[in-house]
Backbone:
């Protein structure tokens, strides 16, 4: 009863998410061919299988899906079926595509077993945002060389999630990355120098770079931005176990050392994990051009950890303390702030810094910091 009802409702559906058993996929596809979907904006289609399925049995989408008409369709996740070699007219307006090839996902999940990435652009010529979720899946066997050159696509946003093979991650980035891309994010338990170099190289036209590092004991977010903070290149490293005793940044060191002198602004969360991994990113190379350091405060205290060494910032002129969004106003004791300057930073002798406060107030004996700061609240 549900499948015939689906066919009847197509003219009224705005968001459609279908999860079904593999044996019903043909019937569902037949219902989706019953007529146009003039109001459809989001379409997600995936299912379950009882036994491992050879890639040759993965059903290819028909060309007359939604009778070729879904003019408002913008978001598509298609894992139950394969894209055909010729355009699916109903996908002509799709802006965001999600493809899951993660065999570790929920048991018996009917994920795609072949990506055929070149077909994404055949059916979705307006594609701007692509998310590829893959693990224990060898992406290097996919037909990346058949994809159109990055310069002729409209892709502005790329996310690659839980790819555990260096070559797999790099091949996706190499295929799609271009300087005009607004956002690239790689989220993985492993990192690699090749991917980092490829991503950062797309910002070579920006003389100055900004670096944001936010982390806790389970996840690190390392973000490189261009000078106007419009284009983002993000490395997300997640672990089931605490990462405090490991160095997930080590493979990134060569890529970051290469551009160390281009960083002019640095933003770091007030966790020991974020700060210590910042030091690991730049083991020897000083951040010689950083003029502004922003500390994103969640707890307003630095006294609970001691850095492995001081960070050399010879050009630093400004420090900004800003309460993390949603945490309210923070109060920092003058003693704490003095401890941070003297224990965390390697500055030229006698350097006076401009101190800016956002949703932060300094308490205690402010005379303690008068030799180091000129204060300016905003």
Residues:
């Amino acid at each position: 009863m549900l499948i015939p009802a689906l066919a009847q409702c197509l003219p009224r559906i705005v968001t459609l998410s279908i999860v079904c058993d593999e044996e019903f996929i043909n019937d569902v596809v037949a219902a989706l061919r019953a007529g146009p979907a003039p109001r459809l904006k989001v379409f997600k289609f995936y299912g379950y299988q009882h036994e491992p399925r050879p890639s040759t049995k993965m059903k290819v989408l028909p060309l007359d899906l939604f009778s070729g008409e879904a003019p408002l369709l913008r978001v598509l996740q298609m894992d139950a079926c394969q894209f055909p070699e010729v355009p699916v007219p109903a996908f002509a307006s799709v802006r965001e595509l999600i493809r899951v090839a993660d065999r570790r996902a929920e048991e018996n999940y009917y994920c795609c077993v072949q990506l055929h990435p070149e077909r994404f652009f055949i059916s979705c010529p307006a594609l701007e945002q692509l998310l590829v979720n893959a693990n224990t899946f060898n992406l290097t066997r996919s037909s990346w060389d058949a994809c159109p050159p990055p310069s002729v696509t409209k892709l502005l946003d790329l996310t690659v999630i839980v790819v555990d093979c260096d070559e797999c991650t790099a091949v996706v980035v190499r295929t799609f990355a271009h300087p005009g891309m607004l956002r690239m994010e790689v989220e993985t338990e492993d990192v690699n120098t090749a991917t980092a170099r490829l991503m950062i190289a797309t910002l070579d036209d920006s003389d100055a770079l900004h670096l944001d590092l936010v982390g806790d004991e389970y996840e690190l977010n390392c973000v490189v931005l261009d000078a106007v903070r419009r284009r983002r290149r993000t490395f997300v490293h997640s672990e089931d176990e605490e990462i405090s005793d490991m160095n997930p940044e080590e493979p990134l060191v060569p890529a970051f050392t290469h551009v160390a002198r281009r960083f002019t602004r640095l933003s770091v969360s007030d966790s020991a994990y974020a700060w210590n991994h910042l030091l690991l990113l730049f083991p020897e190379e000083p951040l010689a051009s950083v003029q502004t350091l922003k500390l994103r405060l969640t707890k307003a205290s630095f006294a609970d950890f001691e850095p492995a060494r001081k960070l050399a910032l010879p050009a630093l002129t400004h420090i900004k303390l800003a309460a993390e969004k949603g945490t309210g106003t923070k109060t920092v004791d003058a003693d704490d702030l003095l401890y941070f300057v003297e224990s965390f930073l390697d500055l030229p002798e006698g350097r006076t810094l401009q101190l800016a406060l956002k949703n932060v107030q300094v308490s205690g004996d402010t005379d303690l910091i008068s030799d180091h700061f000129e204060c300016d609240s905003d």
Summary: The helical segments are 2-9, 25-32, 118-123, 166-176, 193-201, 253-258, 272-281, 334-344. The first helix runs from residue 2 to 9. The two ends are 62 Å apart (CA to CA).
